[in-house]
Amino acid sequence: MKSHRISEEDGEYLAVIKQNYHRLHSLVNQLLDFRKIDSNKYKLRYDICDVGRLVREQLAMFGPTAQQRRIRLIEEIPDRLMQITDREALTKIISNLLSNALRFAAEEIHICIDRRDDGLVMKVWDDGPGIPAEEREKVFEAFYQTRNNGFASGVGIGLHLCRIFIRLMGGTITATERPDGKSGALLTAFIPEPASEKMDIRVKTRLNTETVGQSQLQKEPGTDLAIQRPSDMTVRHTVMVVDDDSNILDFLVKVLGNDYFVISTDSGSQALNLLRNNDPDLVVSDIMMADIDGIELCRRIKNDISTSHIPVILLTARTGISSKIEGFECGADAYIEKPFSPDQLKAQISSLLRTRDEIRRFYAGKFMTEFDTGSQQNRLDEEFILKCRDVIIAHMRNPDLSVGLLARELAMGRTLIFRKLKAVTGLTPNDFMKLIRLNEAKRMIIEGRYRITEIGFLTGFSSSSYFAKCFAKQFGVLPTEFLEKQDPGTQ
Fold it and tell me: What is the secondary structure of 260-282 as a DSSP string?
């Protein structure tokens, strides 16, 4: 459709395909919600929400369809209406109420939201045929269709989900006739703010048995898990996958298992625990999880110096722009919507890992004249590298400069410094310190203020011969040869 190289008739066919794809996609998501709720696996995740903004975003999504059917969408919503609620559940409630009204409306739909002392009152009414009195309770039953539904498509699950979500949040929903006596249906929902004790939702964590050995699973939840890689997988990258849907988690393990060593878990909190003793090259996480969702997991990964270098891909069924912005604001490196192609996911993983490898080659490059962090994307990684460089330069005359001294100056553990430097630069701490010293030596040679033998000792090399050997290995020429090639005007 975007290519504009199709006939008008084919364009109409494709428009029908697109419309029915969106309808099928919506139905699949509703059925998945229905299944999760029916098995008591749906957990509310409370957050402060701008309800007015959320409703207007939903109205904008329904706008083109309403315009096509010449139906006016009329809103009565305060500019700033804040409430602690489950944002995802509230989005689905509003979407289903509008979708239901749009199926029956003749010319207009009204949506009105106001606040009571203890919650929200939401009213949606249309000017359609209305709901017979004897069916006003039945419309909230799963798969029920009203008798006057002959002209409107639907499967009878939307209002059922509305009621279940609203009841989960302690609210109510009713169907009545319009109070002005005109034809049409009025749906009224009350959604209270949650009691504080309901806002701490926890779920049982699990590790995937196909990827992690049984001996690891015998440890108590919450303990640190250092997962041993099989000997035949030592050269593979490690990918951690996180999703609280067991079917999706198993699918991700199977899709990625042939190319990567996969660590899997169905809990954001368990993922953080695994990260303490494992150093994966990349994390793939679903957003909608019960204990710690993908947004918060990504935020914690990117704000922790020990993990900030790890790329994160977020998977989600949310399709709104605002949720994508939220994902990127928390530091996500990529955002993939469900349903996704396995090839798309693998291509994205390969691209991010290739970028990480390029950054490591940048730091270890033989011809790097200035130690610049411009290619580093993460702020914590940039600050870490710059601090390491500053400490090394400040102590580079000391031949005994070591990882221990670097650890004391940075107030970090030796193991963490080793893992962090290796992950970001591809170099061990000793090689990294040598690289900084050699770049400083190169700068001094260009400035021309010192003799070659002096520069070797000033940068911490124990002998002139060792300095010359290291310099030649890094830059391809001996220090004396490099000096001879310099423009006399620069000395």
Answer: SEEEEES-HHHHHHHHHH---SE
